[in-house]
Design the sequence.
C-alpha cells in the first residue's frame, strides 16, 4: 500500500497545489484534487456536491472493483496521465470505470467508452485474450456480470472454438476414448486455454459451445484433461483414504459432480478406464448418490470393454469392512445385464467376456478375509449362466474363499 501511495504522489502533476481531497480505498490513501476527479467521475462528483465540514475532504469508498489498483488507474485517467490498456488490466478498468460512473454524461471519451472500444476492437478478438479477461473478471463480481464482461467473454470463446472445430477433421471413435496419457496429442490447441477456468465458468463455456453447435460427444478429451488437472492429489487407486482439507475436498467434489453432469450421453464416447477413475473419485469424495449411480450405469453399458483393474475399486473404509467395493461392482454388473435385456443385443462374445471378467473379480475378492459369505454368494449368483463357459472359475473362487475362511478359523497363514 505504501508503494501504491508513493506512486500516486509521483504522477500527480498538481504538486504545487495542495490536495483538497483524500480518498481511502481498502487500506490505501490517495491525496488528490477535486477538480480532475469530478470532471470525469460521476461517483465522486455526487459525493463532493454534498456539503461537508471536512477540509480537506476525506472520502472512504468500499467495494471498489480492483481495489487500490483499480482506483489508481481511474485516477490517472482523470489526471490525463497515459497508461496502457491491456488484456491483463482491461477487466479492472472496465469495472472500476462503471463503478465510478465515468461515462459520457461527465466527459467526452470517458473511461467507460475507452475501455469498451478496447474490448470490442482488440481484447475480445482472440481466444487467448478472452480467456485472460474471463479469468480476471471472475474476481470482479458482481460488477463484471453487470457490465456483461463474463457473458461476452464466454460468447467470444464459444464462437471461436466452434468455428475452429468446424475446420478440424472428424476424429475416430478410438481417438475419442483414448486414455488421458495420450490426450495432449489429440486435443485441439485451444483446450489448454480452457482447462484453466474455474469449474462454474468452465461449465458455462462448454454449454455455450454446445448451443453454438459444438457436438457434445466431442467434449470427452476436454473433460478428461480438466479432471486430470483438478483431481490431482487424490489417492483413488490406493487402499487408504487420506484426509485432505475440507474446503479443498468440497471444491473437488463440486468439480467432479459438474464434470459428470457434462459427460456425453452417448455410449462409447468415454473409455471405461476413465469412467472407472471418475467412479473411484466419486466414492472417495462422497459425492451425491445420483452422481455415483450415473457413473455406475455408464460403466455398466460398456462393461464388455473393461479389464479387471477397472473394476477393482477400493471401498475406502477399513473399519472391519471389505477391501473392495463389491456392492458398487454388483450394481455395475446389474446395469449391464439390464441393458442387454432391454436392447436384446445378443452379443454372446461380449457376454462371455463380461462373464470371465466377473469370475476373475470373484476370485480376486475371495481372498478378502472380511468378505461375508452372503455377499460372496450373492455376487456369484448374479453372474448369468449364459456368460459362463464352464464352472471352473467359480469353483476356483469358492476354493480360495474356503481356504481363507479355514486359515482364519485355525489362525493359519494364507497361501494360495
Sequence:
Amino acid at each position: 500500500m505504501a508503494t501504491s501511495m508513493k506512486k500516486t504522489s509521483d504522477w500527480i502533476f498538481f504538486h504545487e497545489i495542495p490536495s483538497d481531497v483524500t480518498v481511502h480505498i481498502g487500506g490505501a490513501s490517495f491525496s488528490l484534487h477535486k477538480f480532475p476527479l469530478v470532471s470525469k467521475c460521476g461517483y465522486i462528483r455526487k459525493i463532493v456536491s454534498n456539503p461537508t465540514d471536512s477540509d480537506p475532504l476525506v472520502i472512504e469508498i468500499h467495494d471498489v472493483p480492483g481495489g487500490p489498483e483499480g482506483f489508481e488507474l481511474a485516477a490517472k485517467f482523470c489526471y490525463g496521465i497515459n497508461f496502457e490498456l491491456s488484456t491483463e488490466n482491461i477487466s479492472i478498468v472496465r469495472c472500476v470505470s462503471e463503478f465510478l460512473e465515468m461515462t459520457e454524461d461527465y466527459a467526452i471519451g470517458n473511461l467507460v467508452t475507452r475501455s469498451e472500444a478496447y474490448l470490442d476492437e482488440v481484447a475480445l478478438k482472440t481466444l487467448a485474450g478472452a480467456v485472460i479477461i474471463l479469468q480476471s473478471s471472475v474476481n470482479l463480481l458482481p460488477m463484471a456480470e453487470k457490465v456483461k464482461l463474463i457473458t461476452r467473454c464466454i460468447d467470444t470463446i464459444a464462437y471461436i472454438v466452434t468455428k475452429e472445430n468446424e475446420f478440424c477433421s472428424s476424429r475416430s471413435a478410438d481417438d475419442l476414448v483414448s486414455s488421458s496419457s495420450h490426450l495432449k496429442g489429440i486435443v485441439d490447441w485451444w483446450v489448454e486455454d480452457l482447462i484453466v477456468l474455474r469449474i462454474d465458468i468452465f461449465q458455462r463455456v462448454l454449454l455455450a459451445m454446445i448451443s453454438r453447435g459444438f457436438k457434445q460427444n466431442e467434449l470427452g478429451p476436454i473433460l478428461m484433461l480438466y479432471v486430470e488437472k483438478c483431481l490431482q492429489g487424490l489417492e483413488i487407486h490406493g487402499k487408504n483414504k487420506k484426509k485432505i482439507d475440507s474446503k479443498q475436498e468440497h471444491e473437488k467434489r463440486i468439480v467432479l459432480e459438474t464434470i459428470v453432469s457434462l459427460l456425453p450421453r452417448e455410449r462409447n464416447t468415454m473409455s471405461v478406464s476413465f469412467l472407472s477413475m471418475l467412479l473411484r473419485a466419486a466414492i472417495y469424495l462422497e459425492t451425491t448418490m445420483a452422481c455415483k449411480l450415473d457413473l455406475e450405469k455408464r460403466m455398466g453399458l460398456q462393461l464388455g470393454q473393461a479389464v479387471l483393474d477397472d473394476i477393482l475399486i477400493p471401498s475406502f473404509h477399513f473399519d472391519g469392512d471389505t477391501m473392495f467395493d463389491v456392492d458398487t461392482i454388483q450394481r455395475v454388473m446389474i446395469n449391464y445385464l439390464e441393458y442387454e435385456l432391454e436392447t436384446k443385443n445378443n452379443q454372446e462374445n461380449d457376454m462371455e467376456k463380461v462373464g470371465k471378467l466377473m469370475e476373475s473379480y470373484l476370485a480376486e475378492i475371495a481372498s478378502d478375509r472380511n468378505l461375508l459369505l452372503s455377499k460372496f454368494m450373492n455376487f456369484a449368483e448374479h453372474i448369468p449362466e449364459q456368460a459362463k463357459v464352464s464352472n471352473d472359475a467359480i469353483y476356483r473362487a469358492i476354493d480360495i474363499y474356503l481356504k481363507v475362511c479355514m486359515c482364519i478359523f485355525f489362525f493359519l497363514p494364507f497361501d494360495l
Observations:
- The first strand starts at residue 21 and ends at 25.
- The first helix runs from residue 2 to 11.
- The radius of gyration is 31 Å.
- DSSP finds 21 helices and three strands in the chain.
